[in-house]
């Protein structure tokens, strides 16, 4: 390994350790606004918890950006709404991303939480639905962008159990009961026919 490669590796490790240590109290929260029912919409709020934890009192939050990870067989993104006060910058990052900025920037008022926006999903199939938001360390367009302390990479995930639509479930149960009744009837007819012989 060359000296240049070694220095780059050490600098990267130190940078990642510093970013991880400095961002420990800031977190991203995904909050489902109802049950995940197949065939229906589901809203998921994206909330930044402790956005200014361990930062200077004059710090300002300028922007955020996250990639969205979602299994396309489980759900699809119907839309993305950034919260009031934020400009929607999602088009700048492309499909499958959520981004916003504000001017003037969000001041440090020791907020416990700041809503960033809402993801509007269509639930497509039953099973475990996993939603992930993430940012790449070192990408200036992703994560949280602060005026003085720079960018912070964050990620969050949410797992929900998507259940069948109630009418589909009822129809399935009704069909199962009908089949059970038909089987019972056939067995009864078979027993009666065997007794006649």
UniProtKB/TrEMBL annotation:
Protein name stated in the entry: PEP-CTERM sorting domain-containing protein
Pfam families on file: PEP-CTERM
Keywords: Signal
Alphabetized InterPro entries for the sequence: Ice-binding_C
Domain Ice-binding protein C-terminal: 162-186
NCBIfam families linked to this entry: PEP_CTERM
Keyword Signal among record annotations: yes
Signal listed as a keyword: yes
Signal peptide interval: 1-19
């Amino acid at each position: 390994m060359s000296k240049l490669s070694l220095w780059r590796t050490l600098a990267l490790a130190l940078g990642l350790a510093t970013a991880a240590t400095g961002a420990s109290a800031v977190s991203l929260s995904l909050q489902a606004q109802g049950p995940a029912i197949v065939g229906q919409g589901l809203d998921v709020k994206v909330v930044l918890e402790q956005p200014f934890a361990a930062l200077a009192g004059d710090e300002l939050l300028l922007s955020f950006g996250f990639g969205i990870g979602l299994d396309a067989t489980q759900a699809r993104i119907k839309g993305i709404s950034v919260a009031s006060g934020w400009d929607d910058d999602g088009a700048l990052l492309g499909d499958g991303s959520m981004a916003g900025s504000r001017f003037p920037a969000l001041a440090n008022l020791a907020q416990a939480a700041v809503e960033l926006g809402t993801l509007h999903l269509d639930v497509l199939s039953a099973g475990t639905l996993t939603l992930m938001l993430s940012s790449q360390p070192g990408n200036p367009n992703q994560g949280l962008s602060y005026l003085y302390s720079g960018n912070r990479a964050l990620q969050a995930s949410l797992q929900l159990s998507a259940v069948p639509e109630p009418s589909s479930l009822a129809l399935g149960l009704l069909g199962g009961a009908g089949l059970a009744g038909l089987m019972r009837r056939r067995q009864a007819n078979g027993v009666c026919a065997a007794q006649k012989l």
